[in-house]
Design goal:
Elements lengths: L1 E3 L10 E3 L3 E6 L2 E6 L10 H20 L3 H10 L6 H10 L3 E8 L2 E7 L4 E9 L5 E6 L1 E2 L5 E5 L8 E8 L4 E7 L2
Antiparallel strand pairs: 1-4, 2-3, 3-4, 5-6, 6-10, 7-8, 7-11, 9-10, 11-12
Helix pairs in contact: 1-3, 2-3
């Protein structure tokens, strides 16, 4: 890869020249690189899954960036050489992480993180027989990481199911058995 500086000849040239080189621009710099060809190996299952996930992430990014507020949000997170589309794809590619769940009396405290933003945390309380006792949305605490859900009752031998959702709609589910 070569970075071109002050070349009048290459100012307006973009694309591939034969099967040899590709010329493109990134961040105002002209870059000349060897043209890549298609792989001769069959893609693995993991590669196919990654391609599908990237396709879904790119579709999300394209659709969500029509909203000027969300586009501005992603653009504010972009670093050098990145744009709002890159950030939206990155956000859609990864799910949020539920790091910790603990209880303070009947309050369920969930520590959830995402590289960008956790949009919601939903809590379901299930009794020992598997019946749904209650469900609702947790409220984000002042620290921006902990989510609080005030349950009416936590049944013995039941379980609490936590679902963390990020802006693109990726979900992470975690269950905690009550003793």
């Amino acid at each position: 890869m070569a970075i071109v500086k002050d070349s009048i000849l290459l100012q307006a040239v973009r694309g591939s020249l034969g099967n040899e080189i590709t010329i493109y621009e990134r961040n105002g710099r002209i870059i000349i690189a060897k043209k890549r060809g298609p792989s001769k190996n069959k893609p693995t299952i993991h590669q196919l899954e990654a391609r599908y996930k990237m396709k879904v992430a790119a579709a999300y990014a394209k659709a969500i960036l029509a909203d000027p507020e969300i586009k501005a949000y992603y653009k504010s997170l972009a670093g050098p050489g990145q744009n709002a589309f890159n950030m939206a794809v990155k956000d859609a590619y990864r799910s949020p992480e539920i790091q910790q769940i603990h209880f303070e009396e009947t309050t369920v405290v969930v520590t959830a993180k995402d590289e960008f933003r956790v949009a919601a945390v939903n809590v379901r309380v299930i009794d020992a027989q598997g019946n749904l006792q209650e469900r609702g949305n947790a409220v984000l605490g002042r620290n921006g990481v902990n989510w609080y859900y005030q349950a009416d009752h936590l049944p013995p031998n039941g379980k609490v199911i936590i679902v963390a959702v990020d802006l693109p709609g990726n979900e992470t589910v975690k269950e905690v058995l009550l003793s």
